[in-house]
Amino acid sequence: MDNYARPMTTRADAHAAAKDAVKAADRAHVFHSWSAQELIDPLAVAGAEGSYFWDYDGNRFLDFSSALVYTNIGYQHPKVVAAVQEQAAKLCTVAPGFAVDVRSEAARLIAERTPGDLDKIFFTNGGAEAVENAVRMARVHTGRPKVLSAYRSYHGATSAAINLTGDARRFGNDSASAGVVHFWGPYLYRSPFHATTEAEECERALRHLEDTIVFEGPASIAAVVLEPVVGAAGVLVPPAGYLPGVREICDRHGIVLVLDEVMVGFGRTGTWFAADHWEVVPDLLTFAKGVNSGYLPLGGVAISAEIAETFARRPYPGGLTYSGHVLACAAAVATIGVMVEEGIVEQSARTGAELLGPGLAELAARHPSVGEVRGLGTFWALELVRDPATREPLVPYAAAGAANAPMAAFAEACKKGGLWPLTAGNRLHVAPPCNITAEDVAHGLEILDGALAVADAHMA
Question: pTM for the whole thing?
Fold first, then answer.
């Protein structure tokens, strides 16, 4: 048979074959998190750039989830890719006990942007490890065993972090970790304190925290761990006086304040760190995700001078093989540089104030299934309800299977329109890259407008 008689392999055939191979290998060998393995069908992703990713069939998705709220500068930024390549050619890895230029530079750049005197950086591989180590530091520093955290929270999936977590993902992992106590944080739309104003919610939430501390024994409490803006559990922006009030309570009782900025740091809320909105300086601050836009695993703890002094001549009882991995640190240095050069933190603030906030409010006015819109910067939530008067959620808390069908239908409508959503419970979380263009915001809002008609159809 000559060449002309052979069947031609088209580009579409090659893409289909590649997709099939990727999916087959995934199904054979990859164990996915938070999933019943035989009930999922992961999308095979072929590539990504900027605010978009695409599959092997050529379907492009505008990513309103920033992966898992971490691609703060979008996918494949050329300056970060080049920095990782350059570092790999120079030095791929070195043990954490050595001093190395790129690790020191990453630490310096992070410390320059954290609030107050948080000038020492302990590097981890991600956010959960950062929380684990912050809690360990607080316990060793104070000599106290207990740690308080909010019910509506997510702090990671490792041992202490998952027990500190206050959302439903804790249920399957809860071993009643010794010394973890939960309390209610402010959430005016569904106030646990029967408040009707932000001022009432703030005052009653602080009183509740104070009461919890008193009845748990202040001298037994090492730390209060809080997300300054609650992330995965609701995108809950606290009332104006809440974080300063928590800071005052912790100071009065000698309790370490740990702010978990893993999801909301590095421009996500329109400031370098969410704590900056309220000018609150924690004793420890955890970070990850946006520090290098998730290009390589990296997290850490920013440490105050007082707590750092505890370990000046006393060894810190913890460490990680890949602490401050040089490739991840190179990505962080480049990412922070890009954020400064391109004004991405400021862009995130403008996008929230001028585009996302007003645009989502307009959608809420048109769609009765939207009970509330809330957020800052490029971090927003639409709370979907069955009845706006009673505020009954569109799906029950921790809904699964058939009970979650309305949210599943809404998410599918988003995807069919070309937008990849981030849904959690009865909420849509809107978290595009911090440098998303105005045109892409408008496109995303147009897709959401159509998808919300599906949510409207599931109302009571």
Answer: 0.95
